[in-house]
Please model this.
Amino acid sequence: MARESTGNRSRLVAAWIFVAVAAIVVVAVIPPVWTDRYPRATPGRAVAALFVSAVLHVLLGTWMFAIVRRWGDPPSKLQLGSLGLLAMAFGLLLLDAGSAYASRAHTGAGMFAATVALFACVGGDFVAGVLALAGVFVRDQVASLNISGMGKRPLR
Model:
């Protein structure tokens, strides 16, 4: 039982990271990008792409919440693996955007903050992806350790 609750806690953390990344993109990245005055900037297309990324992160978080709140069998390795790989892929997309804005972060404090926020979102996606992938590779090993019965067996 404790083993399963630990897995659920790590999945809940991953789900909240997805939601936090979406919120950071909407609150801290989109407004400076919208007001970007760089001569070759296309703020309309960039804002649309960032908004789609935020929506996809909310969908990933919802999918992870659904996995955690589902009753019955534990989630399949396919679900957790696909979530982890999607998180890593979305992190790479945000890394591309952050790298593009890093070249003109010197143009103002807003673009610098947007760049830092995008790199923080990349880190969040990486952590959430690792937590999801940990459910694929570590679940069976933790089950074989039988550490869930704290207090039932004396420690040797």
